[in-house]
Amino acid sequence: xxxxxxxxxxxxxxxxxxxxxxxxxxxxxxxxxxxxxxxxxxxxxxxxxxxxxxxxxxxxxxxxxxxxxxxxxxxxxxxxxxxxxxxxxxxxxxxxxxxxxxxxxxxxxxxxxxxxxxxxxxxxxxxxxxxxxxxxxxxxxxxxxxxxxxxxxxxxxxxxxxxxxxxxxxxxxxxxxxxxxxxxxxxxxxxxxxxxxxxxxxxxxxxxxxxxxxxxxxxxxxxxxxxxxxxxxxxxxxxxxxxxxxxxxxxxxxxxxxxxxxxxxxxxxxxxxxxxxxxxxxxxxxxxxxxxxxxxxxxxxxxxxxxxxxxxxxxxxxxxxxxxxxxxxxxxxxxxxxxxxxxxxxxxxxxxxxxxxxxxxxxxxxxxxxxxxxxxxxxxxxxxxxxxxxxxxxxx
Length: 396
Known about the structure:
Number of strands: 16
Helix content: 40-55%
Structural class: alpha/beta
Largest sheet: 7 strands, parallel
Shape: globular
Distance between the termini: 17 Å
Number of helices: 16
Strand content: 15-25%
């Protein structure tokens, strides 16, 4: 099996190979396990190589380069280069995994020849654009006019080939002609090796026992951008702090709202209680952060996942989350036991109520998370990639 991936991961090319973010390197390595050849079609970046980036040799993965672009609309200037890259990819592989939506991925339908294509839908871009209407109606309308024909073309191409989604929540928002054609999968960032390593660490880690009489620690891991509900979380946490002083909140992630959120924290005098930790690479470092906290909060307004819920579960954190993506599915056992709290989006009173519920019932809820955290072992990156491979090979 020769597999091609169309994923714009902003790789950083060096002599003999390229660097990319650790989470994306995991995907490449998993696909490599099941393929005699892997070819990646991706845009390149001139950004500085980070300590957390992973090196991939050209001996292991062939790279077809696309010029750098920072957003979907700037990709239009590179249409002919991307078209050429798609043609080249189809000529070198037998199967293609296209993370969707990637710019002009509908072209695979024209150049695939005998190549089998699977479109994996990871988000709903139309919903994201619509969520921006309140802040800028004219700009959002123009985005819809420009992007919607492209999105429909991708969906039509997916209908004529194979299609999967990250969870089932995105399916109702797909065009009617595609809904019954897609296969929902649950995408995780944790590998089996990482889970086994985590289980060993849990037996050794006594930090939570040491911190038993100290602050109750809440954690949020998110891209700091509109639609993630981080401002609402900070405001809700401030209200809870007015009554409960022995709590802290850590927020992991980076993004365009970092400075605005930091200013909000400073303006409310919360610097000692709410910390913006910035970007922490997926894997060992991030897992250690999870393990040093008691509760996880996901206040996002729209997700197809999120994968961080599975990461939090695997690290035995009790989760408070909005009812987005596959959250309610993964937080419910096969016996129907809900071992987390589901709240409504944009609902400050619900979030405050659940934060207080965690404070009042800390020991019981931590015990509940410890009891059912193993449920997350069903959702591994290994299992997700294996499902993708089976679908590409014709097994549903």
